[in-house]
Design brief:
Layout (H helix, E strand, L loop, with lengths): L1 H10 L5 H7 L4 H13 L20 E9 L8 H8 L4 E6 L6 E7 L2 H10 L7 E8 L5 E2 L2 E2 L14
Antiparallel strand pairs: 1-3, 1-4, 2-3, 5-6
């Protein structure tokens, strides 16, 4: 039953315990117990709102940074990844396969702020060999949610 509760919360973390209990034909007390246990053992890490920042006056800039890392003896990529994750600019860090080792997602107020982070902090972490930064130009979908009105926009037909 825990898996069903987690799927419901992942889709809508604002749903009430009573609604979940009704959906799963169980008691609110049982749902509360499962949620508290999942929070305590860090199965549930955080409750999150998905924001369409284009509707807010403040500017938000995102970048995807490919990081090539020299693995540490007997520790692999973990020391570099854990160090990178400590910076407040870093939203996510993933170990990846392919041409780079870590994918780091960062956010800031300007491209310059992100550039400073890469050149002054990220590139100086022991083991970091190189970085490639990609700035996000436009967001269409985030965490399964299509951002307002963007899915219905269409391009002009191409005339040959």
């Amino acid at each position: 039953m825990l898996k069903e509760v987690l799927k419901i919360l992942e889709n809508d973390s604002r749903i009430s315990v009573k609604e979940i209990a009704t959906m799963l034909s169980t008691s609110p007390a049982e749902i509360t117990r499962l949620i508290k246990e999942a929070e305590t053992n860090r199965t549930i890490l955080k409750y999150k709102a998905i924001i369409n920042w284009d509707k807010v006056e403040s500017k938000q800039v995102w970048a995807l940074i490919e990081v090539k890392v020299t693995p540490a003896p007997e520790a692999g990529f973990d020391p570099a990844a854990e160090r990178i994750a400590t910076f407040p600019q870093v939203d996510s860090v993933y170990l990846a396969s392919g041409n780079y080792d870590l994918l780091v997602i960062v956010s800031g107020k300007t491209e310059h702020e992100i550039g400073d982070f890469v050149s002054q902090k990220l590139s100086h972490i022991p083991g970091v060999q190189s970085t490639v930064t990609h700035f996000v130009m436009k967001r269409y979908k985030e965490d399964g949610e299509v951002l307002d009105g963007q899915a219905t926009q269409s391009r002009q037909p191409m005339v040959l």
